[in-house]
Amino acid sequence: MFAYIVRRLFAGVIMLVAMSMMTFVLFFASPIDPARFACGKICSPQQIAQVRKGLGFDRPVWEQWKDFAVGVVKGRDYPADKSLQKSAPNLVAHCAAPCLGYSNVNVTTVRDEFKTRIPVSFSLAIMAFIMWIVGGVGLGVIAALTKGSIIDRSVVGVSLVFFAFPTFFVGLFLLKFLAIKWGIFPVPNYVSIANGGVWNWLVNLVLPGLTLALFYMAGYVRMSRAFVLESMGEDYLRTAKAKGLAPRKILFKHTMRAALTPLVTMAGLDLAGLLGGAIITERVFNYNGLGKLAVDSIAVYDLPTIVGLVLLLGSFVIVANIVVDILYAFIDPRVRVG
Amino acid sequence: MSFLSVRDLVVHFPTVDGVVKATEGLSYELDRGKTLGIVGESGSGKSVSSSAILGLHRGTNAQVSGEIFLDGVDLLKINDESIRRKRGREVSMIFQDPLSAMHPYYTVGNQIMEAYRIHHDVSKKQARARTIEMLERVGIPQPDRRVDDYPHQFSGGMRQRAMIAMALINDPGLLIADEPTTALDVTVQAQILDLLQDLQREFNSAIIIITHDLGVVAEMADDVLVMYAGRAVEYGPTKEILVHPEMPYTWGLLSSVPDVVGDTDAKLIPIRGNPPSLLSPPPGCAFHTRCDHRDKVPGDLCRTTVPELTPARAGGNHTKRCHLANPDEVYATEVLPEIAPETLEEQG
């Protein structure tokens, strides 16, 4: 098992290296000149060249990527050009290892920027995750148990309605009615536990969390309904019934356990994706999370931040995959290798 | 009254296309210590009718009627909770494929202990001791270690042994074995059948063995019930039926059994055609579409009227469902020479 995890982690690192290269190549494949964009509307060619040199965009892509890779391992100074460092030593920014880059747009290292953004996105993701798992799986099981009835149909139908509505609509709807019009919840504004305590943190997360959860829930209702129905048809459930086991025990010990495996896969990967930020929900509720950062930095061609985000989100997905595989071994004894 | 008495059992499944008549008016009796073999093709209602004894159709859309008396209690009249308490304790069932019949995520021991603890208020330790004892009884080597294995770590034969241990741990009066050896290879089959017989002697239980293998029936069963399209077509003591079958479908079954000991050149004659649809069974005798002897019956009776279950010409407790006036003669002169010429030679 240990060797397996090490092997998977190693493969993950190689994947991240490849992803960072891809991002550099794609960034410079864009028809828009990032230096010109950074310089502003009225810039002479000389000024643009100077900006390009300052941002290090004048050098070959390959060397820029190499600088980035060295920075991750050893740390580096910005700007990279030695002559610029000499001419204006007071403007040199040091970025300690592991350095993901220095963003001239945000005037801080990418890592520091992430440090302020990650708690926001994580809080939101975990809140939504708990809501949709409890709601989605719970309702899915209820739908499966009442298959064909009016309860089943309305649960599946309503969850599809929320799935079909775009997130910004549901988000704005909740914001307008629950927060602004009826005042049941405060207008959400991210408050960290350190600043406002657990309660404030939680209350402010309810609406954005719910917005995301309602979207994800539809999939989980349908999937857990299908998984439970599928495992209900298994021979071993007939055995459990023939033993004289009470229906409740059959459901929780035998049916749910079997339905768990595919749900864990789905949940693991969805959570990993969401940890990297919910672009629309963060915008609607004005949460400064990773999703909002991604949109903002792409809009201003902020290469260091983009590369950093790609790697961060990529590593979430890679780690989630490994965690899901390890969980499999705990759930299904057939997966355990001796 | 017998220990188990099934009377006019009807199991219907309403579907969007119509009613599937899986079992129609099935009746049989079974005493403790005796074995009944139920034989028939896939989809003839063998499993469906037996599952009804455990009330496994409850909570589905199946319509079950008739009477099933077990030890004097009508299992179709009692409520869900009462039938649940009887499952596993008074009636147990073992299934065809022991790998899929066991939960892959729990150890064999866990699943057997569970069966015991449902009906006995004992500690985990006691249940475990009893489980190991049962595993030993069914011939699992090193039961104290194998009890913690998962089903996939067992071989096919061992899994079926473990299933038998699970089914018998509460010492039930009736054991229903639904094709218990179909998924096993031949040598293991014989071991499992021997084991069932030993355990039957030990616990004096009644056994219903569902199979399509007449060899299994010949070895195990005191009585045989041949089912076709949801109905009993021939019912009686095993010896009677194997020697003097009076229903063309039973002849067909006998003709399809390969004879490995005697004349290996003898023809293996399959029953032509396919089993009828239970959704819209043919009118009259359900077997008439595949019967070679229907023209011997005057007045097109086979195509129009369902034959009653009537006493066989050979007498005894043997009944059959056939319009033929002289089935014993037809069998002796037309069927037997085809399928077992050597028997006639010996006699002649």
UniProtKB/TrEMBL annotation, chain A:
It is a multi-pass membrane protein. Residues 118-328 form the ABC transmembrane type-1 domain. The keyword Cytoplasm does not apply. GO terms for biological process: transmembrane transport. The chain crosses the membrane at residues 9-29, 122-145, 157-178, 198-218, 258-280, 306-331. Keywords: Cell membrane, Membrane, Transmembrane, Transmembrane helix, Transport. GO terms for cellular component: plasma membrane. Coiled coil: none annotated. PROSITE patterns: ABC_TM1. It comes from the Bacteria. It is found in: Cell membrane. InterPro entries: BPD_transp_1_N, MetI-like, MetI-like_sf. Belongs to the binding-protein-dependent transport system permease family. This is ABC transporter permease. It comes from Nocardioides pocheonensis.
From TrEMBL, chain B:
CDD domains: ABC_NikE_OppD_transporters (cd03257). NCBIfam families: oligo_HPY. It comes from Nocardioides pocheonensis. InterPro entries: AAA+_ATPase, ABC_Ni/Peptide_Import, ABC_transporter-like_ATP-bd, ABC_transporter-like_CS, Oligopep_ABC_C, P-loop_NTPase. Residues 4-254 form the ABC transporter domain. SMART domains: AAA. PROSITE patterns: ABC_TRANSPORTER_1 (PS00211), ABC_TRANSPORTER_2 (PS50893). The keyword ATP-binding applies. One of its GO terms (biological process) is peptide transport. Keywords: ATP-binding, Cell membrane, Membrane, Nucleotide-binding, Transport. GO terms for molecular function: ATP binding; ATP hydrolysis activity. One of its GO terms (cellular component) is plasma membrane. It is a peripheral membrane protein. Belongs to the ABC transporter superfamily. It holds the Pfam family oligo_HPY. This is ABC transporter ATP-binding protein. It is found in: Cell membrane.
